[in-house]
Amino acid sequence: SRRPRRASALLCYGGSRGNTAMPRATLSQIEIVAPDPERAAAFFFKVFGWNAMTVPWDGPTYVRMFPPEPGEPVGAGILAPDASGILDRLTLVVRIEGEPLTTVLDRVREAGGRVALEPMPIGASGLYARFFDPDANSLGLWQDLAADAPESGG
Asked: Are 63 and 114 in contact, with CB atoms under 8 Å apart?
């Protein structure tokens, strides 16, 4: 029999560290893989308006993107895969404000991406959509449900 889910359980894994203070570990940067980083940067500029620049160094081509500073701390989550097949890989989730998710997904299609999930409500918190960029990287779109948010339905 399956255990009921606990709505707000905090999982703490002590392991061999016990109560030892953990060094600070923050999310610093997200890197995606693309065979043509400059083409990928053009895709993200068309979809999100993110500027980019090629970084000179002795390794493979590296393009640094410049999304706006987040208005709140970056979070992280762990999601079990489901039968749909779209929840099977690392996914970068981008918060969208000021326009409907459907408008962003239209730009994704126009720029060569593939929409995997149209906007759907996630409880009473917000709307979520998912797409793949032209290099099959998985990206999610999140939009808080707020009184001043534009309509985001499909």
From this structure: no
